[in-house]
Amino acid sequence: MEDVKAVLLDGEHVTVEDVATVAHENVAVAISDAAWQRVKDCRKMVEELVSTGKVVYGVTTGFGKFSDVHISPEDAAQLQVNLIRSHACAVGQPMSIPAVRALMMLRANALSKGYSGIRPETLQLLIDCLNHGVHPVVPEQGSLGASGDLAPLSHLALVLMGEGEAFYQGERLPGGEALKKAGLSPIQLQAKEGLALINGTQIMTSIGTLTYVKAKALAKAADMIAALTVECLRGIPEAFAEEVHRVRPYPEQLGVASNLRRLLTGSKLTTEQGEIRVQDAYSLRCLPQVHGASRQVLTYVEDKLSIEVNSATDNPLLFLEEGKVISGGNFHGQPMAFAMDFLKIGMSELANISERRTERLVNPALSELPAFLSHQPGVESGMMILQYVSASLVSENKVLAHPASVDSIPSSANQEDHVSMGTTAARHAAQVIDNVSKVLAIELICAAEAAEFVGAEGLAPATRKLYDLLRGVVPPVLTDRSTSADIEKVAAALLQGKWVQEVEKISGELM
Questions:
Q1: Taken in order 263, 269, 275, 280, is the CA torsion positive or negative?
Q2: Contacts of 464 (CB under 8 A, 6+ apart)
Q3: Catalytic residues
Q4: pLDDT of 336-358, one tens digit each?
Q5: Per-residue b/e over 329-359, b at no fewer than 16 CB within 10 Å?
Q6: CA distance 376 to 272
Q7: Torsions phi, psi of 52, nearest 5?
Q8: 303 and 277, same structural domain?
Q9: Is the pTM of this model over 0.85?
Q10: Looking at the structure, do residues 227 and 176 belong to the same domain, yes or no?
Q11: What's the CA gap between 305 and 335, in Å, rounded?
Q12: Residue 36 has pLDDT above 50, yes or no
């Protein structure tokens, strides 16, 4: 992109925002000079190990259960090639291009730490593929989330060898052909390199990072949409008073309450205690407590991602200063598995309470609005079935929110006898977020319809901006029509976060 510098990789300072930028905006990456020196020094150590024949897992031995099989120096290179070819058996739909870009960036960042022993030219080719838009076809399924994301990552490595498949300029091509069209040449893997390319948590972390960024945007959107619903249901904002939340001082709860106060400033539709009712239902009154708790989940997830994106997750690891090669377990995805499962739960709850607000908007027994927000109740169904769809999505999320991390299954003849299922957790988290965006879109569409009845002119300036943004893509439903496309368009807009930015120009930056 114009006027955007390359993101510098050094294995230490990548942020989740950097990952999203490279993934979605085609920003280039580069490796720092200091990182290049560490990579070169570490490679020398590998070459010395090979020449002396010292027993080192995956360098002079086989893999997994074959770790006791000695590999001669003349077979060291073929061992790596065989590793990639045999392990490239992932299945399912290809990962999205943004997710693959994030994956390539994170793998390069991990390798740039200088603990993996990869050759500089191999790492350079990985960087060149990313910067030239050669995106390997990486099937989503097949990782146990321990021993690294072996099967999917092997499809990335195949392309560097001139094999496999890659997307290039909108075409799905054989890997070698994609490299050639981009002006690049494949490499011949040498000792340790195959293992260095596939032994890591970058599949689950790339999916997880992009999912987290979307979740963060949806959390802000949820506050905005809920504020609009509060107005349309003539809610009581006194429940969001600073005094209430100061005596239960979770930072996230305080932040959501502050968001709601600012979003509702200037509203002519909200009411006071006793004016219509003494207190609101929980789905309105407990917004800071519930949305705030989901924000606590996001805080936890961001902390874990910030560590993981700058971690060495290879095995074995080479420590230059100590002169040691240590076989460990940094490839085990348990931290990411827990984080992604927690993310699923926290975001599912945002959808759960949103669906309950939608029900209040469309159910005449729970509001003073026309049944199902229909302009001709009975003759026309109005928003009736939108609530059905919302209910279906939140129910599906309950299944997806089942923790993948509590499962394990032994592999490699019981040598790898406990695994994380972190990649499954990340994939399911991505599905949950997609569902949450649609549940929130449905609430927003219904709240905008309710505003037609209570008077959009009475909305607060911030929520009126949200209403206007919605109306820019979804006209009022004055008579029954299909709203599937409307829901999809609004969900996409919420995930992009641009509407949040527009509303924040009025409300001030939201937490």
A1: negative
A2: 456
A3: 57
A4: 999 999 999 999 999 999 999 99
A5: ebbbbbbbbbbbbbbbbbbbbbbbbbbbbbb
A6: 31
A7: -90, -15
A8: yes
A9: yes
A10: no
A11: 9
A12: yes
